[in-house]
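Re: the 301-residue chain
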Amino acid sequence: MSRRCVVLALIAAGCGSNWTIGQNDELIIDCLDERLYFVDVDGDGWGDPNQGGVLQCEPLGDVTATNQRDCDDSDVQVTGRLGSLCPGDLVEGEDDALVGAAVAGEGEFIWLYGSSAAVSYQEARDACSKWAEHPYPANDNPQYGLATFDPSTGSYNDIQQAILEALVDSEGSGTFAAWVGVLWEGDLETGGWAWEDDSSDGLIEDIGFCTDEAPRPEDFFPNMYIDDPDHREIILEELERMRLALVLTDAGDWCLGLPDAASTDSGGPYELTRAHILCERPPGDPAAYEPVDATGADEAT
């Protein structure tokens, strides 16, 4: 344990006696700011939740984190739990889902892939919001959710490459489809697709659509017709929740469209309305987060 040496010169008077600690005399006391530190093997500032804290005066060795919120202390790209979920908990009951993560541009990204964990666009939105939430006043950054890729940082190209590398490492099929933050704006007949956070629509044009023409909301409902009043009402009710997927096709092309554009002759996890998840959030500051207490409740500075 580190100790701090404090040199004091004290004069006590008024009780019938005087005493002095001389200028060169040292009074040794334990440190005044001892606190819990946690092992942080990957050095990302987030501590290992599987190891207990150590009371010490300052970071020492790899016991340097002030919380134990890391979602994977062996991977610097997988950072800490800000809100209620780690990436592996995004889809309930899918223990075999693979998790990819990367820090790119000014954001943190996570995605699920593999043979399971394909979900609806509504489930994807809910899961990404839970992962991205910043519930504490210590964080001034806005909450993100489904990935929207700030075009000024070039994060899209970095994430595209990271996903490709993850697919190769997993020896997967080479196809991928994940919901991202592209929604339908405007009325049913004349509207169009746009980023939900008002990012540059130029990136949509750069990525392109999986079909010759941009998909339309009614494409999610192949057995419905917008001229039918009952069908139209159902489609309109879903319009606000609809999102497009970022797709890597069997031909190796990236595009925006419906998840089944990634389907192959051998099948796979993707259907018309089921895809994986690609989430984005601002980087969290590890120093703003206290340890999770023994009951599992969250605390923040």
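The radius of gyration is 26 Å.
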